[in-house]
Every structure is written in C-alpha cells, then in structure tokens.
Structure prediction request, 270 residues.
Amino acid sequence: MNQRDRVPTAFLRPTPSELGILRVLWRLGPCTVREVHEALSAEEKTGYTTVLKFLQIMHGKGLVERDETRRAHVYKARLAQRQAQRLMTSQLVDGVFDGSMSKLVMAALGDSGPATPAELAEIRELLDKLERGET
Amino acid sequence: MNQRDRVPTAFLRPTPSELGILRVLWRLGPCTVREVHEALSAEEKTGYTTVLKFLQIMHGKGLVERDETRRAHVYKARLAQRQAQRLMTSQLVDGVFDGSMSKLVMAALGDSGPATPAELAEIRELLDKLERGET
DNA sequence: CCCAAAACACGAAAGGCTTCGTAGTTCTTC
DNA sequence: GAAGAACTACGAAGCCTTTCGTGTTTTGGG
Prediction:
C-alpha cells in the first residue's frame, strides 16, 4: 500500500463492530486480542476468535497497526480518536448538512440536552477566539 | 414520543448509495424513479433499474414512502432532512465523541475553516438563548 | 521432553449491498 | 388494435460483513 495513503479509505465508513473495537483501543491504548475481547465482553457477548478475526481484517484494511514481536500480537488504532472525529464529522457534514459545518453546530447545540454551563462557557470562549483570531 | 417505529432502524446506517438518493429526495421533494435517476445521473453513472431497485429496497426498509396511485410511483423520504440530521448527529456523538455533544461542537468549530461572521453571530445568539432560556 | 493452555490462521456459512439483465405490464399514438 | 415506449417486478452474480469452528503453532511448567 501507498505510504502516502495516510488515511485509509476504510475509515470513511467503519462498521459498528469496527467502531466498537476502535473505541476500546482509543480508551485503553495498544491492546492484545485478549484485552480487547475482555473489554468488549463487558458490553456485548462476542467470541474470542470473532474479535481476533475483526482485528485481522481491520489490520488488512489499515484501520489498525500490529506489533508482532511478541507472541500475543499488540494492536493499535491507526488513527487517533481526534483524527477519526475530524474525518467522520466532515463525512457527516457532506452527507446530510449540505456541506455546512455551521448547520451541524446549530443542530448539535439545538438538539442536545443543552450542554452544561461549563461546556457552554467553553464553547463561547472558542467562539471569541475564532472571532478575534482569524478572519 | 414513541408512537410506532417512527424512525426506521435502517436510518441508523444509511449506505452511501442510499444517502445519495435521499439527498435527491430532500432537494427535489417527492420524485418518480425517472426523476431521481436523472438527478443522480448528473454526478454518477447509474442504470435506471439500479435506482429503481434501490428505491424498492429502501421502501422495504421504510426509508422512503411510495405513492402508487399513478403508474409511475412517486417516492418520498420518510424522514425530513432535519430529522436525519438529528439522528445521524447523535449517532456520531455516541460513536466517536464519547457521547459528548459539546465535544462535537468544539471539534466542528475548531476544524472547519472558521465559519463566516454571520454564522458565528448566529451561533452566539443560539448560545445566549440556551444560557438564558431553557435548562 | 511432553502436555495443556494460549495464541494465531484459515475457511466457511449466512446475510446484506450493489449492480444489472430480463421479462412482464400498462400506456400512447398512429 | 398493434407497435413501441415507459414502468415495475424479479432474480442472480459478485463482493463485503459478521460470526464462529477447527486446526496448527508456540510456550511455560512438571
């Protein structure tokens, strides 16, 4: 595969199962299959080999990296959570918000059980910075 | 709030093709297969019967409604774009933002080429309303 | 050294997505 | 009223996802 392919195209549409595994990897950092399986078992009933197979497939797709130096391979998310957030957010914006990021923000603010005051303040601060800093 | 499967579960994960069709229906309103096909053909090369089949399948899934009173059936998106935005946004928030809507907002505001001043003002106004009005 | 436990690889089945081709039905126009 | 256009329905092929079961390899303890 091309080294410049920094963002695997598979990331454009991770399946729910893949996301579940990625979430574990983001939360716990690099993990063996067993560790992922145990973390996942807390919520869903999944066979060990199912998780193994997923990680193998995800490795094939470039969604995760694999360290094979030890017997129990260690898997690691290829993209940081931040990057995945960026990607998938712009996916969503393109898909259903007519490409308008601010429509997304409006919808999110309007729909959410309104964020806590602290969060609102944080957002406001970011707005200030945006209005001053750039433009 | 739960009348009777108001939101088809298929909406939780529309495929790219399905989204393409839904976007046409949102933009043009209720359409015949031919109309959808023509709108879609502007961007992609798709066979007429392919579009027909998609609409049939989407009808089966409950993604679209169908008026059969005329020979050329008329299809209509089951959910308004606004509702789809709501749904898919909260999907995204659950999936990669640890359930935090404000994290999404922060990411969107931070990543986007900063919105126009008018948009920023609009967002700020909504913030004000949130902080005062509801809780 | 041998065995059980732990780990990986592989394959396969069931179901979903995508894409059409073909066949049958209804409408329009001479 | 027959020919052809415009529609719908159906089925099938090829590929992807999800889920395991089996089989093989490695390893640590007795």
Notes: DSSP finds six helices and three strands in chain B. Residues 107 and 113 of chain B are 12 Å apart (CA to CA).
